[in-house]
Design brief:
By secondary structure, this protein is mainly α. Helices cover 80% and strands 0% of the residues. It has one domain. Helix 1 packs antiparallel against helix 4 and helix 2 packs parallel to helix 4. The longest helix is centred in the middle third of the chain and has 29 residues.
Length: 119
Amino acid sequence: MSNLINRPTLAFTAASWLAVFIGVVGFMIGLWNAEMPLHEKGYYLIILLYGLFSTISLQKTLRDQLEEIPVTMIYVALCWASVGICIGLLLFSLTNATLTLSEKGYYIMSFLLSLFGVT
């Protein structure tokens, strides 16, 4: 069993961190300027944090599988379900929100950029 670890390049790492930073800061600026109750802002913040955590967990799990580190299929399924649930919750809440279409698109794009950056 060979545990050869291929490290990403510095440019890839920098681009990933930049994507996370832009996505999270953009999402937070949108929340700060939004005219919605505080509990709604908190909900969207928790969805962002949950999405980041679940995506990192899924990415680590898939990397462990590639390196032949034992991972239970239940945990892999929970990771996939968790990512799907947080994206679904965001889409469901934005569908029912009284925001303009451009605001909804802004939240979706900054959320997905953040998730893309942490992978």
